[in-house]
Amino acid sequence: MYWNMFKKIIYIYIYIYIYKMIPKLVHNIWIQGYNNLPENLKTSYNNIKELNPEWKFIFWHENMIIDLLKKYPNIYKVYQNIENLPGLLNILALKSDIARYIIMKKYGGLYFDLDFICRASFNNLFNKKKYKDYTIFIASSKIDFLDYIYPFSKPKYCSCFMAFKKEHPIWNKVFDIILKATNAYEIGSALDISLQNSNEYKIIVLNQINGHYKCKNQKSICYTPVESSWNFIRPILQFINCNHIQIFFIFAILIIFAIFYILKYYNAVLLRNMHIIKSIKRKKNDIIYKFINTI
């Protein structure tokens, strides 16, 4: 009797522990299918698979995505009518956003954009014992141009690289935003908005993942090269982000030189005006002196 109770407790514990773990599934999306994936991305993708033999990789194309979305009719309707939403975001990128959200909700695991290059195993991200109670692992990034104008803005959570447990409750909030979305931006930022407004979940920000506009460093496990972004302005923003100290000093030096030349010009103008005033006073005195002598 006690043995059976003990076994039940152990099974319950194991179930809860496994349920909380990040499944060793890797999801990637290319709407047009693997055969239409550019060769450089295929090379990176296959290299990442070789680095992670313990992980199961699932490559999603549009037909697979549609089959899954049909189980969620309301979300599928948004997916079908995505082109009618106002906004500047790429249609394929928006479809990929909805697809990655529903895939992560249904299966959990790890998702990353196919423009990532990795040089170490994903196990390095999740193996720490202190992370055992965490169910959200996600990269951060500076996505909007305003993030560079206003330096005190929070880094945004980036769905370009993320890991979740299966059926995480945060996805309910994400899909609430998507179903009410009136423009493309709200869909693209639905996960970030949901996480920023939720305090009840433990979140690990993956600092070893260098997402959009971030700089590659020696500790990076994965990073995105500039040339493969959806965003044409990204090379400029990444250059600013990675070289902001040098840019600051260059601007500071230019401002100092500008102030120096302005002051120099101001002094020159001031001296010239003083000289003119003295000349006028001298001429005025000469006229008065001559007038007195004629009397």
From TrEMBL:
Key words of the record: Membrane, Transferase, Transmembrane, Transmembrane helix
Chain segments annotated as transmembrane: 245-263
InterPro entries: Glycosyltransferase_domain (IPR051706), GlycoTrfase_DXD_sugar-bd_CS (IPR007577), Nucleotide-diphossugar_trans (IPR029044)
Protein name (Swiss-Prot/TrEMBL): Glycosyltransferase
GO aspect biological process, one term: mannosyl-inositol phosphorylceramide biosynthetic process
Gene3D superfamilies the record matches: 3.90.550.20
Annotated GO CC locations: membrane
Any one GO MF annotation of this record: mannosyltransferase activity
SUPFAM superfamilies registered for this protein in UniProt: Nucleotide-diphospho-sugar transferases
